[in-house]
Design brief:
By secondary structure, this protein is of the alpha/beta class. Among the domains are: 148 residues, FAD/NAD(P)-binding domain (3-Layer(bba) Sandwich); 150 residues, FAD/NAD(P)-binding domain, CATH 3.50.50. It contains 14 helices and 23 strands. The strands form 7 sheets. A 6-stranded mixed β-sheet has the order 3-2-1-7-19-18. Strand 5 and strand 6 form a beta hairpin. The chain is globular. The N and C termini lie far apart (49 Å). The relative contact order is 0.14. The chain binds flavin-adenine dinucleotide (FAD). The site of flavin-adenine dinucleotide has 33 residues, from helix 1, strand 2, strand 4, helix 7 and helix 10. Flavin-adenine dinucleotide binds next to helix 1, strand 2, strand 4, helix 7 and helix 10. It comes from Tsukamurella soli. It catalyses: a quinone + NADH + H(+) = a quinol + NAD(+). This is NADH:ubiquinone reductase (non-electrogenic). Belongs to the NADH dehydrogenase family.
Length: 466
């Protein structure tokens, strides 16, 4: 920050996703000092993660470095760190990077910390069925998907070969539909003829959901269209199928009538649910009556603030506002609304008691099913096929950050959609094993630190004597 003064209004923004970045950019010309703190160095375009996972795009194309995006915006300082505490009473946010703690004071706070994958209380499923929320997730999935074909080529055991060539995507929302379609296309087109003992197109791709329909928010007609298209590509769609266990070998499924069955599969992907950042609960607990919903989202006031704190805004996937879906537009519009109020307050024109409520403008939703085929819903208008796919293509390019990224994405799409090849097919053992290795290291570390932590605790006899 070059022009920081002690008296300037201090805005802290937590998160560098759609909500966080929009908030910071909307305050570009405001007379404020902004600190943006996020646990990643990038602004991630989550809607295209599945293309990183299936070798179409590189991670850099969908995740530009936030500090480079904001290089020219002089009133913002970008900090890497995990927010570990928010103190609403004293107006501070504490973030942690390795062993370094930073306490950042604020006059206004915008919390856009988003959501994580939810395993509905079965977090151990994550070991074998990664979700798709981060770049790490997408790269791990790429490693697992392409690695499964490699292992199938090597094994001599037909049952093991079948297991390696069975891919199960759990959750038939947009992410599940897009990923299942892309795994099928990868096998059918890109990998065709590249192996000697297996035929990649013989693989089984299964899209599974406990709900009775594909893409439920898009309505029965579009959901059925997407399902039929997937089926025509060879994807098996299994509905009313509740996954009750996930292990190394495969998954266990319970049908509606209570019967259980197994699918032996090496590669499983979890795209079934979301859980809001724990920062939501942390904030709600410090207010006089703000609640969180079942997914941990903050039930905000009509002006997106929390009770008793008109300067603390919660936006994006972390806010619960009736009728606002957990989509990029919800985060973008929420961030613009919140910064609009901050700008008004700087001019002395904001009265928290008479603020007009946040209004969401529904710009619709869409999902690609395969190359040249998508489904889209805008208000009452429903579209499917090539036109919907073109609309999907155009809109994703518009919202991708950076001209260079747009250009290289267009090139990558041209190569993939008009030809057979994909530019990002490299996999490394880090992709496949790093998460599990990190979990193990962290567990060992906390085990090693346990005696020290215990030594820090007052012994019961000490406390009794105190
Ligand atoms: C695979 C996938 C596909 C999707 N497809 C679409 C789509 O096609 N169309 C659409 O509109 N929406 C789509 N979405 C949803 C959309 O991406 C989200 O609604 C949107 O990203 C929400 O924005 P946000 O700013 O609230 O959160 P996010 O974009 O998730 O950003 C959260 C930010 O908070 C940071 N953070 C979290 N916790 C902490 C902490 N403790 N300390 C510091 N920083 C923290 C993170 O690092 C991140 O920068 C998709 C989502 C996923 C996962």
């Amino acid at each position: 920050m070059t022009e920081s003064t002690v008296n300037r209004h201090r805005v802290v923004v937590i998160g560098s996703g759609f909500g966080g970045l929009t908030a910071v950019q909307s305050l570009k010309h405001a007379d404020v000092d902004i600190t943006m703190v996020a646990r990643t160095t990038t602004h991630l375009f989550q809607p295209l993660l599945y293309q990183v996972a299936t070798g179409i795009l590189s991670e850099g194309e969908i995740a530009p470095t936030t500090r480079l995006v904001l290089r020219k915006q002089q009133n913002v300082e970008v900090l890497l760190g995990d927010v570990v505490a928010i103190d609403l009473k004293n107006g501070t946010v504490t973030s942690k990077l390795m062993t370094m703690n930073t306490v950042i004071p604020f006059d206004s706070l915008i919390v856009a910390a988003g959501a994580q994958q939810s395993y509905f209380g079965n977090d151990h499923f994550a070991t074998f069925a990664p979700g798709m929320k981060t770049i790490d997730d997408a790269l791990e999935l790429r490693g697992r998907i392409l690695g499964a074909f490699e292992a199938a080529e090597v094994t001599k055991d037909p049952a093991e070969r079948d297991r390696r060539l069975t891919f199960v995507v759990i959750g038939a929302g947009p992410t599940g539909v897009e990923l299942a379609g892309q795994i099928a296309e990868l096998a059918e087109r890109t990998l065709a003829g590249a192996f000697r003992t297996i035929e990649p197109s013989d693989c089984r791709v299964i899209l599974m959901d406990a709900a009775p329909a594909v893409l439920p928010p898009m309505g029965p007609k579009l959901g059925l269209k997407a399902q039929r298209r997937l089926e025509s590509m060879g994807v098996e769609v299994q509905l009313n199928a509740m996954v009750t266990n996930v292990d190394y070998q495969g998954i266990t499924i319970k049908a509606k009538d209570g019967t259980e069955r197994r699918i032996e599969c090496a590669c499983k992907v979890w795209s079934a649910g979301v859980q809001a950042s724990p920062l939501g609960k942390m904030i709600a607990e410090q207010t006089d009556g703000t609640e969180t919903d079942r997914a941990g989202r903050v039930v905000v006031e009509p002006d997106l603030t929390v009770k008793g704190h008109p300067n603390v805004f919660v936006v994006g996937d972390l806010m619960a506002v009736p009728g606002v879906p957990g989509m990029a537009q919800g985060a973008i519009q929420g961030a613009k609304y919140a910064t609009g109020l901050i700008k008004k307050s700087l001019k002395g024109q904001d009265d928290p008691g008479t603020r007009s409520p946040f209004k969401y403008f529904d710009k619709g939703s869409m999902a690609t099913v395969s190359r040249f085929d998508a489904v889209a819903k805008v208000g009452k208008i429903e579209m499917s096929g090539f036109l919907a796919w073109l609309a999907w293509l155009f809109l994703h390019l518009v919202y991708l950050v950076g001209y260079k990224n747009r250009l290289s994405t267009v090139l990558a799409w041209l190569i993939t959609f008009t030809g057979r090849s994909r530019g990002q097919m490299a996999i490394t053992s880090q992709m496949i094993y790093a998460r599990l290795a990190m979990d193990r290291v962290q567990a060992q570390q906390s085990e090693a630190l346990q005696p020290a932590a215990e030594a820090d605790q007052p012994r019961s006899s000490d406390s009794a004597g105190a």
